[in-house]
Amino acid sequence: MSSEKELKIREIDLRDAIFSAITLAQAEISKIRVGAAVLAVNSKGDSSIFSGCNIEISFSRAFHAENVALLKAISSGYTNIKAVAITSDSETKQGAAMCGCCRQDYMYLNPDCMIYVFNPDKSLKLKVKLIDTMKYPYLSKGMIR
Ligand SMILES: [Zn+2]
To answer: Alpha-carbon distance 48 to 76, whole Å?
Structure first.
């Protein structure tokens, strides 16, 4: 199966994963719950989806959902990042294609990674290639293999 075709099929899996993950968000500080999911491939060529939610432990320690999902993928041996999907329950920030810090983390792994942003009603709001969100990209190759 071509990578493009598999990605299309996995869009639904990614969407399901983010709406499951958002229910686990710990967002007592921002009051904005976020769900994310990463589609990644390991060294054997197997693909899998890793979900994450935002975790706000304290004012000085908060983890973004897309970063939690990314770290789960990497720590499971799935370092070839193909796509990330996100949603939040904030109407005003819904259009954001991830914060700059998270996008740069993904840039180190795959600038061609697809980003999907879903509305709270589960409709697709935005589908964009990560590199296309960067006007002046920092293209340093990360250290993750
Ligand atoms: Zn972020």
So the answer is: 10
